[in-house]
Structure formats: structure tokens, C-alpha cells
Amino acid sequence: MHREAESQLSSDTDLEDPDGKNAKTGKGLAAKKGKKALGDKAKGGGAGRVTGPGWVNGHHQENGMENMTLFEVVKMGKSATQSVVDDWIEAYKHDRDTTLLDLINFFIQCSGCKGAVSGEMFRHMQNSEIIRKMTEEFDEDSGDYPLTLSGPQWKKFRINFCDFIAVLVRQCQYSIIYDEYMMDTIISLLTGLSDSQVRAFRHTSTLAAMKLMTALVNVALNLSINMDNTQRQYEAERNKVIAKRANDRLELLLQKRKELQENQDEIENMMNAIFKGVFVHRYRDAIAEIRAICIEEIGVWMKLYSDAFLNDSYLKYVGWTMHDKQGEVRLKCLTALQGLFYNRELCTRLELFTSRFKDRIVSMTLDKEYDVAVQAIKLLTLVLQSSDEVLTAEDCESVYHLVYSAHRPIAVAAGEFLFKKLFSHRGPEEEGLPRRGRQSLNGSLIKTTVFFFLESELHEHGAYLVDSLWECASELLKDWETMISLLLDEPMPGEEALNDRQETALVEIMLCAIRQACECHPPVGRGTGKRVLTAKEKKTQLDDRTRVTEMFAVALPLLLAKYCVDIDKVTNLLQIPKFFDLDIYTTGRLEKHLDALLRQIWEVVDKHTDTEVLEACSTTYHYLCNEEFTIFNRVDIARSQLLDELVDKFNRLLEDFLQEGEEPDEDDAYQVLSTIKKITTFHNAHDLTKWDLFTSNYRLLNTGLQNGDMPEQIVVHAMQCTHYIILWHLAKVSDGTSVKGDMVTLRKQMRAFCLMCQRYINTINNAVKEQAFTILCDLLLIFSHQIMSSGREQLESLVYSPDSSLQAELLNFILDHVFIDQDDDNSTDGQQDDEASKIEALHKRRNLLAAYCKLIVYNVVEINTGADIFKQYMRYYNDYGDIIKETMSKTRQIDKIQCAKTLILSLQRLFNEMLSELGFNFDRSSSAFCGIKELARRFSLTFGLDQLKTREAIAMLHKDGIEFAFKEPSPQGEGSPPLNLAFLDILSEFSSKLIRQDKRTVHMYLERFMTFQMALQREDCWLPLISYRNSLQAGADDDTMSVISGISSRGSTVRSKKSKPATASKRKLPEGEHCWCTLVEHLFYLPQQPILMMHSPHLTSTVLRDPKKMRPEDSFTATFTMPAEQHPHQPVPPHRRGSGLMEDDEEPIVEDVMMSSEDRLEDINEGMDFDTMDIDLPASKNRRERTELKPDYFDPSSIMDDSVGVFHFL
């Protein structure tokens, strides 16, 4: 017993037979290659078995109930893994064959296989035969297996599965794993399964083998420790003098060391078998998850047992796999390496690996997978901590710029790297410095931050830099006392002072740090939005805001006084008060500092004319003038005094400026401009209606029109100021705070100003015209019929609708100033070579187009005015494609039929332009004609797949197209095709959107315009008619009607002869579709009199026109009749073959989701109807380059792909 106790190793629990650990018959894995050594089997089959207390007939018994297999026990997870393993070990001691068979079936069942290995198979079949047999038992209908199933139960199963293997090896580590039976059999089975072509077997067995290997590594580590301890005990005993040396103890230690060495040899054999049989093959498996398992576990081995595994023979696998195509595998490589570099004792063994794979790790900081990039930066941070000499300056710079990344986790990781590199090293000369102030350590670190910010040359992203450093350097960034000292205090002797550029950067960083502390959320563009703060974070936020107020209430006036003339510094400093807690001015008795701040703001307004500075002053006054705080009266008085002075100065200067007979000099013009600019800026945020500025501004604008020599900036700001006057007046009228007569005054002022803007649109100066156009569009939208919505019917008298002349002027302005080439744009004053100027000019044109398109979308101008906009879709797709497409979508939601008529009108105008340029004998293969045809195809795709929904609109489109094609006779006389006949070739692009019944109806309508001779013509000039007729007749044999919701599920349309009733075998037409059929039939065949059309329940219109005011071309009489005098070649319409749309048709209707053969599949994304589904498509390259230029004009829902070519019409 003493000998057994000496050889016993430390363990949590050992339920094995103490004698069993020495009952070994040999070492190493049995060399059976798929055939298991059965050992001593129990005789008599199962009848003679003696089982353990927790295992009955191969099943786990719990509370006397025996019904669960080992797989079910682990799956349920109700029993502790330790007790399950203990019960299995006890059963194994009594009947190891049956119990081992249960373990084999456990692995089989964990793979999702429904089969089971029987005792007969176990005894007489090779492993490969067993695996082949089990492969046949898989469920072929499903590819799922336990490791891939979702849900909390299966996630827990994976954890329990791994725990079971680890606990099993740990509990068997003293004897059973050395019996050359259990481990040999399991390793042989898992090796065979891992080589299977069945993914479930391969995945499950690889995970089991890797976890088994990890458990064996722990056993080997314990053996190594025990061997070292035994060796030290032996050396200590042997070094004793002979008199005190215990020979029996030496023999015992020698025997123990021999046993430990034998056990370690066996464990090494097992690990070698797993590594060479499983890992070496599976670390490059086709399945990324299997590869990730291998890399994750080898990282664990190297960390646990670094003496054996942390060498280049194993590290090379991690290095190679860092080039894996799958992000999750690369991520496992990085996390494995992090565990190694975190331990500084191991870093010396990684020098060769680091030198070999450092470049790859640095490049992974730009990985397309954000998680991989984050972990790569964190790994480099650990490398940096281990040694400053490993990473070169170029390596560090590649990480530095990532602090400006839009992805916050990457930026935060890069910020930590930057902080460790630049701020964590303190020299001996920095010890003993004061904690705060200019001479403190923080003062030096803040200077370093400023230098880095300037060297990065991304000065507009100070907020990003602060946010990146916030988590690791918040205390430094919140040291505003030191920042103020660096700005206000004089430098000490020998200290280098900050230059102007550095001071500007420090002010910006200080402002960004204040904003971050008071708002507690990342800057715009980094992060999804504001998150809910914890109680601790809220307290920190309040404390920081109080500190900011107390500190800057005193320092801000001093800073403004020092930098009063510096535009950049003053603009940033004036944003600080909006983060103040204004109550502190009263509770802290800081009123004198408030007065000093107001005086400094007055000084800034007086000295500056820059728009940004004036807007900052206006915003500061607006924040301080809060009626909820006691300081309101004090600030309001100061604001009123400032505005009084500005208005008086403006009126005085204006009188002198507008003196008749005198030529205003430049100084007078500058004074007027600076004053009106200040008033306009303040009027944006403050109500100045009590100063009655409308008269002065209107007089100024009127004089500018009459004389024509008014400086453009004065006119621009006068317009903007007048615009604000009207809006503030409207706000008072809407709120009901106005007095009697204000409504009439507002109406007069608004209409007079709109007429003034209309006159200015026709002036020469581009800046003035663009300002007038933008303001006029805004006013027309604000004072449209929608002003009466939400219960504001009392504002009906303010509604202002543009007349036809104004609509024409607005449209002409868009055509002349928006749809131009870059080289033709003179708005940038000769700076076209500057890329920034081109982008700014494009931005301006996009805003002008959006302003007009909003008038179309909100039904302020006629929808058909959009025809001249829509026809530019292809030519200017790169610049305005998203705006035009969204406008088409919105107009279709308002009125589908009118939108369709507008689309066909745009094609007709392009066709007429082509005729006027090329003549009537043009070549239909010319680029101009092909461009129109391509545009028609694009228009067709925008109608989507739901043909029933757009049925009436498509029918009307074909009707207008046919009439246009036959409208003009041939200039060559009788026998020649009509002048516009080629338009039918363009119209055929929309034929695929017609359903079967409507194709037949449209074809009948086409025949009304055809003579008998036309039907017989086969010359090339008649090909458009032939092609169009064929596209309409194609539905008789191969209808490409799309599957539409609600109809396809109820059945197709009915085809019945008028002479005989429909039989029961034929499908009946749904009632809803019958209504559509009747409606489309009316569009083409009703008598020549006005009818009341049935609208789709989906159609919504924001304008109801008065029938009395309807133009002739809008009435159904004018639209649907074809006077004979307009078509001299038209025969008498043939007799209709039936009163309905349904004709004799015995062929089944084919419902398919394909377009016609002329529609290319790659453009299917543009065919989605906007009000039926939303499809997110990637933005084109050109759109990505101009992301910052495009505001969300009217919530665009879809964007065309960048594969669309741009065609320039001649």
C-alpha cells in the first residue's frame, strides 16, 4: 500500500481500481490499423455482465429510471458531467467491451447518424466498414447535425460534448488510458471518422479528437511536472551522506520515475497519433469551421505545454493559416497568437515566428473582416509591449491612421496601440513632475497628441481621434485645466511655446473632448446611435458637465479675448457654451463671467463677417436665451441690444447706399453686405419680426432689379433674409400668436417675394439665379395645398400655386443649369481643374435638381413636366440617376397612369429631337436611336414584376405610343411608313409588361391604325411595325406573364368562347381581375364620351383636379378618340370580335417570373416596383465617391447598379 501511495499522482477524483494502473501488457498504440484489440471479453454475452451502479444494460440509470443513452444524457445536460463520467468508468471496469461500444455509439450519434454500432459489428468489422455502414444511416433529407443546429439547447450540447471528453480523460488519466484498449480504439475510430467524406462525421470527430488531444496535453503536462519533482527528490536523496541516505526511498523514486516516463511515452504516442492522423489533414479541410477548430486547439496546446509545442514545427501551421480565405479561421489564428504574446516569458520563443510572419499580421489590420482587423491590431499591441524593436516605424504608421476609421472597434484598438506606443513610456526626467498644469506630465502628453494630430493631416476628424483614445486615455483628454494653461499661460524659460497651428489643433481637440464627455456617444458616422447609459455613466456625465461649466465659465471669456480675430479658434470656442449647465451661472455666482462672455461675443460679431463665426455666435445666443433658466433676461437684453444696433446700422447704411444719382463705392457696399450678412445669420435662429425688415430688404431687391448693378452677395443675402422673414411670420400665424391682419400681410409679402424671385431667375448672375430658384422652390413647397394639412384649414388663403409660365421658367432653369457637362459649368470661376471645385459644383447642381423634383413629388407642378427630367436618366445617370429614379418612384405612387404617360412623353420628345437632328431617314442602328430604346427598356424595368398592379398604366402607355407612331403621315407620300413608325420599335420594350388579355386588346387597337397594305409590307422600313405586332402576338403561344400575388394562387384567367359557356374543367377569372379587364377594355373601346374611370385602391393623389378646368388633352374624349382627319390612311375599324377581352384560347396560360427575351436578367434588380418591395443594392462606384454630396432628399428606397452604361444623346 505504501508503494501504491508513493506512485499515486495528484488528482481531483480517482474511482479506478488501484491495481488496474499497473496491469499494462505493453506500450504505445496497438498497430492494428482499423482492427480493434478486444482484450478479455465477458463470456456468455450480456447475460453474465456485472454492471456499475449508474449504468444498466448500456444505458445511464438516474433515480432508478433506465432509458437514456450516453448521447441523450449529454444532450439533456441535467446530470453533472463529472457524475456521468464516473458512472461510465465504473461500468467500464466491469464490462469494458459493452461500455466502450456505448462510447463509440456516442460519437456516432453526436454526428447526427441515426444508426448504431452493434456488438457483432464491433467484434467482426473493420473501422472503415463500420463507418461505411453508418454513412448509409444518415438522413439524406437534411444536412443538419447537432454541431450545426441552432438554438440554446444545441449550443449547450456542444459545450457539454467538449466537457465530457475533457472530464473523461482527466478521470481516466491514472490507469484506463494506459490499458492500450480504450484510447487505442477511440483514437482509431476518430481518425477514421475524420477522414470521412461525410461532413457531419468529419466535423464531429475532428472536434472530439482536438478536445481529446487538449485533454492529453494536460495529462502530459502533469506527468512532466511530476517527473521534474521526482527527479529533484531523487537528486536530493542521492546527495545525502551515506549514513543518512535511504536506499529503499531511492529505489522507490527510481521506480516512480520509470513509471512516469513510460506513461509519458504512451501519452506522446497517443498525441502523435492524433496530431498526424487528424490535425495534419484537417487543419486544411474544405470546411472553414473544421479548420478553425484545429487552429484554436493548437493555440491552446502551445499555451498549456509550451515546452513541447511552442516551437517552429507547430507555429508554422498557425502562420500558414493566417492566409486562409475565411475570416473565422484567420480570427482563430490571431486569438491563438494573442494568448502566446500575452505571456512575456514566451515571447522570446516567438522571435523567429514574428520575423517571418510580422508583415502578414500588419497587413491583417486592413482585413476586410472587421473582427479580424481588430484582433490583428490587438496582437500588434501585445507585440509592441513585448519589445519596442520588433515593429518598424512603417509598421506603426500603418496602424496609426486607423484611429480615424469609421468602424469604432478598429479605431479603439488602434487608439490603444497609439497610446501604448506614444504615451506609455516615461523617462527618468518626467518623474516628480506636477500632476496638473503646463509643466505636468499631462502637458507633455497633450502636446504629443497635438503633434500627432497635425502630422496625420486629417484635421477635420479631431472627434474621431478623441473617440479612439477615449477608452484608454480619457483622464488625459479630460485634463482641461492643463489645456487651458497651455493656451493662456506664458511658456516657462526654455520651454518651446505652441505655434498658431498647434494652438488651433489643441482648441479643436479640447472641444471634441468636451463633447465626448458631455454627450457620451461616438461622433457622427461612427456607431449606430445613442445607447442607454448606466447609472454610473450618467453620474460621470453629470460630473463632467459640471466641471466643464465651472472651468470654462471663467476661462472661455479669456480665451475669446485672446483669440478674438482667429476664425478657426473662435468658431470652436463658441461651441463650448452649449455643453454648459446654465444653472451653475446662478448657483455658482458666476454672473460676472456671463457678462464677460456676452461682451466677448459682441466683440466677435462686430469684428467678423465669416459665416461660420456668425453662425456660432447666433447658436450660442440661442442656447443661452432659454426661458427655463434665470439668466434668460440678462442674455435677452444683451441680444436685443446687439440686434438693435445691427438693424439701425443696416437702415442707415441702406439709405445712403440707395441714394439716387450717386454711385455707391466699394466701402459702402462692403458695409451693407457685412451688416445684412450678420442680420441674416441671426434671423435663421432668432425671431426678428418686430424689427420689420421686409420693407428694407424688398426695397433693396427691387432696386437691384431696376439698376442691375447690385453686388451679387448683397442680393443673395437679402433674398435669404427675406425668406427667413416670411418663414418666421408663417410660424407666428400657424401658432395662432399673430394679430388681426397678419394673415393678409403675410399673403401679400409672400406673393410679392415670389414674383421678385421669379424675376431674378431671368437675370445674368448665376449665384443670384441659383439662390432665387432654390428659395422659390422652397416657398412653393411650403405654401402649397399641403399647408392646410393637420387641421390648419385657416391657412387656405395662403396657398400659392404656380401658373404655367412659372412652371415653364422653373423647368427651363433646370434644363439650362443642371443638365450640363462639367466643362460647360462656369459657376466655379475658372477653377474647373480643381477636383474639389468640380465636386462642389456637382453638389450644387444636385441640390437644384432635388429642389425641383420635390415640386413634382408633392404635386406642386404638373407631373408631366417631369418628362424633360426623366429623359435625361441615362445620359446623366452617374450624376443624378438616384434622384431621377426616386422621383419616378414617388410619382408612380401618386398616379400610376399619369406617371406612365409622362414616361412615354419623355421618350416621344427624345424621338422628336432625334428626328430633327438626323432626319426621317435615320438609321435605326444609330447610337441615338439605340440610346432611346435602352432608356425605354430601363423605364420598363421600373414597373416591377406585379403586372396586375401596373396593368392600367402599361395599357395607357401603349395607347399613347401607338397614337404617336401613326400621328404624322409619311413625308414621302402614300405607300411609305408614317413619320414616327420607328417609335413602335421603342414601344415594344414595354410589351413584356402586358398580360395576355391586354396584348390582344392592344393588338386590336393597333389594327385600327393599319391599312390592309401595311399588314402585307415586309420592307426594312416596316420592321418596327412587324416587330411590335410580333411582341403583342407572342402571348398567344408563350406568355411570359409574371407570377402576381393573390392571382396566381387562385388560378389563371379563363379562356372561353363567346359561343359556348365555360366548362367546369376551365379555370374561372377572379372577380378582381375581371374588373381590371373591363377597365382596360374601356381605355381602348368605350364610345367617344367622358367616362368615370375606376381607380386602383393603391392609387393615391394629393391633388383633385376640377373637371371644369381639365385641359382638352386631359379629358377622355380628347384622349381616346381618333378623329379620321388625323389619320387619312386609317381604315374603318374592324368589327369587334367580342364584347369582352377574353377570346377563344385553348392554350394554357404560362405563368413565369422571367422577363421577355429582350430583357436581360442582370437588370432584374431595376425591375422591382418601389411600392411593392424594397431591394438593397450596392451603391455604384461613382455614388460611393460622392457619398458626402447627396443628402436624403426624399428617403430613397433603391439605387441602380453601377453596371449600367451611360449613353450621351446627340
Automatic annotation (TrEMBL):
UniProtKB keywords: Cell cycle, Cell division, Chromosome, Chromosome partition, Coiled coil, Nucleus
Pfam families per UniProt: HEAT_SCC3-SA, SCD, STAG
UniProt domain SCD: residue ranges: 279-364
One Gene Ontology term from the biological process aspect of the record: sister chromatid cohesion
Region entry Disordered, spans: 1-55
SUPFAM superfamilies assigned: ARM repeat (SSF48371)
GO molecular function: chromatin binding
Keyword Cell division: yes
Coiled coil spans: 220-273
Main location class: nucleus
Subcellular location: Nucleus; Chromosome; Chromosome, Centromere
Cellular component terms (Gene Ontology): chromatin; chromosome, centromeric region; cohesin complex; nucleus
The protein's assembly and partners: Part of the cohesin complex which is composed of a heterodimer between a SMC1 protein (SMC1A or SMC1B) and SMC3, which are attached via their hinge domain, and RAD21 which link them at their heads, and one STAG protein.
Family, as annotated: Belongs to the SCC3 family.
Protein name as it appears in the record: Cohesin subunit SA
